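hiii so um. not sure if this is the right channel but i have a protein structure encoded as tokens and i wanna go backwards to a sequence. like what aa goes where. can anyone help
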């Protein structure tokens, strides 16, 4: 799975997600255009840089950045895309649906039975 907007700052949800999904047993690919590593994992600049098929993409970006990333996300053909709070404005959702993406809106960390509060 890819975490788009993975952060090197542990207080940010893009970092908490990397830790939560890793702890839940997922193979995690952090996507961050500025970092080489996030939580010890090699980071890539875009989803299209990931060399394997993706089950899930979880997005932690500002809506404008999310909108800009959608074509690349669609090109990777994930089974589902989670738009976490703050990334899921109506324009983003409409474009994602136009691209045929299977959208989930909500906190992807909670979906795997964890809480962001578990990751200070």
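sure thing!! here u go:
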């Amino acid at each position: 799975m890819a975490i788009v907007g993975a952060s090197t700052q542990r207080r940010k949800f893009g970092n908490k997600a990397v830790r939560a999904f890793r702890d839940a047993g997922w193979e995690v690919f952090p996507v961050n255009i500025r970092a080489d590593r996030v939580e010890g994992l090699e980071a890539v600049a875009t989803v299209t840089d990931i060399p394997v098929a993706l089950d899930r993409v979880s997005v932690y970006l500002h809506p404008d950045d999310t909108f800009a990333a959608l074509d690349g996300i669609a090109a990777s053909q994930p089974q589902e895309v989670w738009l976490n709070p703050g990334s899921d404005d109506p324009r983003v959702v409409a474009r994602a649906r136009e691209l045929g993406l299977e959208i989930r809106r909500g906190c992807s960390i909670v979906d795997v039975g964890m809480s962001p509060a578990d990751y200070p």
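oh and The helical segments are 13-23, 63-75, 90-98, 108-111.
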